[in-house]
């Protein structure tokens, strides 16, 4: 078995992580203690439930599955397009939770037939939609796949949840959806709008949209890149000496996602409190020192901001209310099902034609400016927006 993969599924205890770099102190790297959710609230909500998780084999999806099992879910339906990831998550869950019933469904959650098959395996009370493409620079050149997977698949999931009478749908979102400057951010903002429109007040399905920033040591994260670069002896590549990001551990993010859903509100948008932004340069230096080396030995190379990247991600908006420790409730955008249906059809047609210019235009038009988080909106070339914003 892939031991490092299972490590990513295992909770971080004592804020220390055992992985490719031994003895990594995550609390020291992030400059704060890991937040702990109200596990009693989560357990009271999840106990005995049947939960469907899309993207179940990914870093976030796998940990959400484990947290659901840990907090009393009796049954998990695992929807995953990557066959190896699906096999691994199911085997690890069986090993850790012998009494847990799990159903593995290999397929694309954007395919209505796959969703119908998954939901036809038995009653499901909660659907957690974690499947998404998330790599900012890559998606800048792949707007068709970003829209297909992040927007249209999310709409398909929301429609299936409504049709099946699912009690609660949870959308795992991102802080990059706030005043988006990238294809990823704009596509996730559209995913949020799709859920709000399709699960409007007439729907019996509760909706919890949860935004948060970067997850430390998730697949493809900067921490994993730095680890590999340190292992090779350097240098470490940093985009910009002033770049900052918000980080959480996988465990705290997933526990707080579940606690937000457990709050029981009919329709809500939440943002997780990720503390102060972390300097990427400082993070790189700390990781080098924790590996027993000196930054000058390893070296640092500044590569410049990549397409779609911001120098700083927006912080929490002023218009917010504390829903629970570490969880903020944000104002809801007005859901307009009729107008969004027209927008969704235009996106679907552009995806069908592989019409990149039309998709870029639709992303620009559909990603509204967020007055609570001033900054450049999504543009065709977000590098220009970043340069203007941070000169």
From TrEMBL:
Residues in Polysaccharide biosynthesis protein CapD-like domain copies: 51-316
Residue numbers spanned by region Disordered: 365-391
Compositionally biased intervals (Basic and acidic residues): 378-391
SUPFAM superfamilies per UniProt: NAD(P)-binding Rossmann-fold domains
Coiled-coil regions listed in the entry: none
Domain of life (superkingdom): Bacteria
Protein family (similarity comment): Belongs to the polysaccharide synthase family.
Protein known as: Polysaccharide biosynthesis protein
